[in-house]
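Exercise 7. Given the components listed, write out the predicted structure of the assembled complex. Treat all entries as one system.
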Amino acid sequence: MPPTPPADDPARTAKTQQEFLASYDASRFPHPSVTVDVALITHAHSWLYGLLLRRDQHPFKTSLALPGGFVGIDESLDDAAARVLSEKTGLSDVFIEQLYSFGRVDRDPRTRVITVAYYALVHMDRFGDPSTLPKDTLITPLVVDGDGEDVERVTPVDGDLRPLDLAFDHGEILTHVIRRIRGKLDYAPIGFQLLPSVFTLRQLQEVHECVSGTSVNKASFRRRMLASGLLEATGKLEEGVPFRPAELYRFTRSSAV
Amino acid sequence: MPPTPPADDPARTAKTQQEFLASYDASRFPHPSVTVDVALITHAHSWLYGLLLRRDQHPFKTSLALPGGFVGIDESLDDAAARVLSEKTGLSDVFIEQLYSFGRVDRDPRTRVITVAYYALVHMDRFGDPSTLPKDTLITPLVVDGDGEDVERVTPVDGDLRPLDLAFDHGEILTHVIRRIRGKLDYAPIGFQLLPSVFTLRQLQEVHECVSGTSVNKASFRRRMLASGLLEATGKLEEGVPFRPAELYRFTRSSAV
DNA sequence: TGAATAGTGTCTATAAGACAATATCCC
DNA sequence: GGGATATTGTCTTATAGACACTATTCA
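Answer.
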């Protein structure tokens, strides 16, 4: 039960809106802290990756965590998420969307913290040379557990597929993210956010397969995508492959960032 | 930009987790207030309704608002939502799910308030005699605007279909709710939450039509529902209709509250 | 020319929509 | 029996999957 203002509280007897605003005291009872956490998902070579930061402070010192930060008192949630992403990764102008809010009472051992989680999608190309990333920033492969349709658990792993320790409830957040994009893939053109600006149908299919965790029929996938009207042929061909190059496509800008 | 702790903050130099927790001060900078708002949606006679409360205080005095309240410092978001729903409507044990968090800076003129919105689904039967509802509690029809697939705007109306004034961004929240349940209807057994415990296929179809805003093919709908394995015939027939009564069905408890 | 993948065509299975025929209940 | 709706059956159409065939590029 949250504390409630006493019956003789001035706010309950104020008559005009003017008076009310003047008498309202936001700090009558303790407020939780509010943060945003951003799960950046990226894709390359038929794998999904997540961006994680190595913590150098307690709690969960040396564990990995999603980039996050406090929501400023004069900052909207969306703005806070975009700012955090930009500050911690240098990326802007990417697809980013609110996911879910996590508010377990003990999710942060320090104090009560409610976090509004966001997810962002981007292709690995956007990072340029990976060696330019800061020392504590990791881009780790994600392993998705669960049979068939449902996503049971998503775990970031190291090069040898050993699971990595995550701080707070960030494992749960990552799990929700994959669940969301898997669900959304069926009805929203979300796949191209994980691709470079031009791509082959084969690449698009790889993204879909890797998000959905299934393998799809080539001819059928191709038919469906071309019929959707969201794709536009560039007339150019991919280069550097030792076999017949595929045509490059681009998404029509009916769905921007 | 949110305030950041000064560089000499004790939290940055603490060495053990013990010390860290002791030195951490959650109130270093101003925190937003956090509330939950619950959009209760109900259904009867081929209409969707929303439960709204008449405000008796500024701001938005005399406007209608969703039931809401502060999140207790020792209370999870889900618990807060269930509590608010129970306190304001007397209902418990209903389907309730987190929707989205709304955090526009100026959404509350008093002070910074971030709200985590929930939606709940229930059949009108759950209210028993509607005249037992408190004076300020209204159950108003919802009008859904938007062409075809997408929900553009949801507006509560009075008996003459005149739009009602909503406080804060609660109109936006209601719009999101209908969007959500419309999207979810396709892949989740959500319709039966808006029905009594036993119901006819016709009633189920009415719910689907009224949520989706379309009319569906009777034979096809029937086939699909029966094939889903979520329905169980009770062997009993509806009563009190002046024509051939339909068989009553029940949902198998594979998806509980 | 051979290897490897791109891209296309065809057949089948499945599910939805249209629509009509039959069944059943109340009055 | 008449009215109204429930329930079932059939036909048509749209779409996904299976699978094989042709096309094109590089080595």
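Discussion: The first strand of chain B starts at residue 33 and ends at 44. Helices of chain B lie at 10-13, 17-23, 77-89, 170-185, 201-212, 218-227.
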